[in-house]
What we know:
It is a single chain. By secondary structure, this protein is mostly helical. Helices cover 71% and strands 1% of the residues. Strands 1-2 form a two-stranded antiparallel sheet. α15 (309-339) packs antiparallel against α25 (563-570). The longest helix has 37 residues, at 596-632. It is globular, with a radius of gyration of 25 Å.
Amino acid sequence: MSKHEMSQTVLSSEFKSxxxxxxxxxxxxxxxxxxxxxxxxxxxxxxxxGLGGVIxxxxxxxxxxxxxxxxxxxxxxxxxxxxxxxxxxxxxxINLVYRAYFMQSPLVxxxxxxxxxxxxxxxxxxxxxxxxxxTFMLPExxxxxxxxxxxxxxxxxxxLFFGLLGRELxxxxxxxxxPMATVRVVAIETLARRDERKxxxxxxxxxxxxxxxxxxxxxxxxxxxxxxxxxxLPIPWFDFTKDLERICPGMAFGVAxxxxxxxxxxxxxxxxxxxxxxxxxxxFIIINPLLLHLGLTDWAxxxxxxxxxxxxxxxxxxxxxxxxxxxxxxxxxxxxILLRGREFIQVFRRLFQFKTASSRMKRFSGFPPNLxxxxxxxxxxxxxxxxxxxxxxxxxxxxxxxxxxxxxPFVTMLMSGRIIGLTGQNIELPYMKQLxxxxxxxxxxxxxxxxxxxxxxxGWLRSFKLCELTKTTVNSMIxxxxxxxxxxxxxxxxxxxxxxxxxxxxSVLFPAPAIQWPIRIMHQCIWITRPxxxxxxxxxxxSFIILGGFIVLFNxxxxxxxxVGVVTGLSSPIPVPTTIFIxxxxxxxxxxxxxxxxxxxxxxxxxxxxxxxxxxxxxxGVMGALLILSLWTKPF
Length: 636
């Protein structure tokens, strides 16, 4: 037997597949059960954290218990597969409803954009009032849906291609530690082995959250379909702005009612939480009223007595904050890269260092990727994206597409992959799509609606490190995702259509888009038109310089306030950081009562339980609403 065959035999004996009928069943179950929950949260809450971690925890606990009772416990490899792709449930198709909203929004016309110039492959024409029809079952939706699905496919394959490249560079070659992957492995082992102490804490938190979620979401949702709505608490927040107006005009304050936002205070780092609160207070408590008092900026002219928190958030964003936030976004993405210049130079050096034949024999993460697979992924993902873009906008400069679809993802993979491998944190280059479109000099607005996307494969890279630490074959992780991905897309489409049938989006039942989508439209339109009275380059550059200076200063003297948290607070409605901070205070109080060690050990468990309980309450509400709708339909 050759040395190569011996090494392959050793690898196959060490690594095992986690792809079994039990892991596949868990993926299907999570998609069917949690997809409506994820969509619902995006429609009713502002600032709620993603459910990915919650779904992963719940599915692993559920199937670990089921397999234990059946007499055949989960293997570590099965647990890894269940914990990884279990969170594939998502709310991607909300973007399609947003497009219908965009085409009808008067805000778009205020920016001087002729919606008739928007290509029909992005959204149906404006003469079709989709917000009243509320359906995807129209022939005008065929081009947008076709492009949407193709773009999803090229994005998935492109991400996988760069994830496999990152695996060879950072996991095999550099052997980076990936600290957050180690934390996930501990969670997988704990849940798979059923730590009774943690399970009891998890169950109590979930029960409390379930009762609260029934009052907040289930009861109002079901009674609304019975035409006798019962509202227990305001969604998405308590608004105290009008009470504060008499004291200080322009000030805004509120507390979010979603318990998932509160749960974030248990798990986010202290520096991030404090930074978010500082940023939000600076904007809504100090700077907004000060600008109004001094009569500075267009925001001071737009404020009128009686404005609620939502209106203040939207108007102050459009008429002042949008430019500083763009500049600060550049600073957060670029300045840390400049501060770590040596690390990135070393990445490029190591990339072109070839190991000896003997060292290549020993691998740490399983079999190497098949070269033909890599080539196929590159053609389908990277080249396929360029072909799609040129099909949609034939005269768009090809050099810009090559840079955006190939070079930029490669550079981002090198940058983010190494930082995540060393620190567990991620840094992204902001506004690259906007900058490349401006640099291309393309004269029409159709390029701004291209499905351009940077796919550096960072999510895959995390999964591959998890596979290495748990001795799970990479092929089983890829194949599981391949099986689950189209099923998740199908369920996301079906459930999104169901929700749109239940009530208009936005509406009283689904209030979050009415708050978030105007802000999104502002960001999108201000780049497209760059109006002189709203787009201020001097404010963008000034904000970049000021925040960049603070980042350098904080890096030198090690101030425990996270600048990214400050920027997040400045760009978020104040109820979100406030409620996260309340969760942090509860976490501190529990530390005094139960002990800091206990809280440190159980805070992620508490947060997951709180999120899960509310998620179950949302499922009850959705199922009840659908049942009532089916019974309420008259036969005439």
